[in-house]
Design goal:
- It is built from 13 helices and eleven strands.
- The chain has 361 residues and is α/β, with parallel strands linked by helices.
- It has two domains: 300 residues, TIM Barrel (Alpha-Beta Barrel), CATH 3.20.20.70; 53 residues, no CATH class.
- The strands form two sheets. The chain has a nine-stranded mixed sheet with strand order 6-5-4-3-2-1-7-8-9, with helices on both faces.
- A hairpin with a 5-residue loop joins strand 10 and strand 11.
- Helix 2 packs parallel to helix 3, helix 6 runs parallel beside helix 7 and helix 10 packs across helix 11.
């Protein structure tokens, strides 16, 4: 997926599709659910998946509401995989059982994320570790797909240290973990206090894949201090959010823009939105949109992107760049030097070989 995304910018990397707006919970900070909507007809969802595949989409995330409430969710996952796209699922986890997890395996799910907000349920959120820990154990025992546990920090969360407890439990079970920042109704930052920032720093120092570390460095280190980020949001082009009505939006928090039916969405729309500046970008806290933008930052200026992704601010305020060993090795193999020499031929050969092995045309 990443190789295809790096080779061309003329297709979406990730699409977020809602097959069910209704949710079995009612977290007070969430604006992405209702308690009455019926499932989107399966034929409509499958048609939307065909349209996304025709646009060249690399991965599709099914969310809601609560997508596990849809009776034919597995058929949608199979459709995603038949079209050669990665299938991802965001769920609150309440409906998971060993049998349901095995059905997700059989359908071909690639990745699942559960958001857990606290250790003990309260009036803000019932997505607690106390309630969901047994579900996590079932996932550890049965899931053949990758699992990520996402905790959150922000004004609605009573005990910030719960996020660290959740991240540690995810690690004990062999799962990846991330931490998100609670945003307002337009996806904008709600500034963290001193205690919340300290908890975030501890979590960000836990062992994690380099792409999560890069995300934290590129975006979150500014946001937790209330500083804006300088970046170009590619929503509407490289990232699409398709609501239950089949309309394309920038993201879950910018519904209504551009608000074009997916049936009518063309490559001209993708091109326009790729270049369009979104005024909400500087204080945005939507990580899926930010991850997608990082791909294009690297594609357009890889060395400068590495400097942003792996920078570190010292005690004196000076910023330095410290690339992980694995990234240094990849950069040496695939990035040609500034001056033309024998390594130009070497990196070109490595790149052609890698694309051939990954079957990227």
């Amino acid at each position: 997926m990443i190789a295809t995304a790096l080779k061309s910018r003329n297709h979406p990397i990730l699409a977020h599709l809602v097959p069910m707006r209704r949710c079995n919970l009612s977290c007070t900070y969430c604006n992405e659910f209702d308690d009455f909507s019926k499932p989107v007809p399966t034929a409509l969802v499958l048609r939307r998946l065909e349209l996304l595949a025709a646009l060249g989409t690399s991965a599709v995330t099914l969310s809601g509401g609560e997508p596990l409430l849809h009776p034919l969710l597995d058929e949608m996952i199979r459709c995603i995989r038949r079209h050669g796209m990665l299938a991802e699922l965001i769920t609150n986890g309440y409906l998971l059982t060993p049998e349901r997890i095995r059905r997700l395996n059989d359908a071909g799910l690639d990745h699942l994320q559960i958001s857990i907000d606290n250790v003990v349920p309260d009036e803000v959120s019932k997505k607690s570790l106390k309630v969901l820990d047994r579900k996590l154990q079932w996932l550890a025992e049965n899931a053949e797909f990758d699992v990520n546990i996402n905790s959150v920090l922000g004004s609605s969360i009573r005990h910030p240290e719960d996020a660290l407890t959740i991240a540690n439990r995810a690690g004990e079970l062999g799962f990846q973990s991330t931490v998100g920042l609670i945003h307002d109704g337009s996806g904008q930052l709600r500034k963290l206090d001193h205690h919340q920032r300290k908890v975030f720093q501890v979590i960000s120092n836990l062992r994690k894949p380099f792409y999560d570390s890069a995300l934290y460095t590129r975006f979150y280190e500014n946001l937790i201090e209330g500083r804006p980020n300088d970046w170009h949001c590619r929503a509407g082009s490289r990232y699409l959010y398709i609501c239950e009505d089949g309309l394309v939006h920038y993201c879950s928090q910018q519904r209504g823009y551009p608000g074009i039916p997916l049936e009518e969405y063309t490559r001209e729309n993708l091109e326009r939105e790729y270049h369009l500046v979104k005024p909400c970008a500087p204080y945005c806290t939507i990580p899926c949109v930010q991850r997608v933008a990082m791909v294009d930052e690297f594609r357009e200026a890889p060395r400068q992107a590495f400097a942003r992704f792996f920078s570190a601010r010292g005690d004196n305020g000076q910023i330095s760049c410290d690339l992980p060993t694995s990234i240094r090795a990849l950069a040496w193999l695939f990035l040609p030097p500034d001056r033309r020499n024998w390594r130009h031929c070497l990196t070109s050969a490595f790149t052609r070989t890698a694309l051939l092995c990954l079957r990227v045309k």
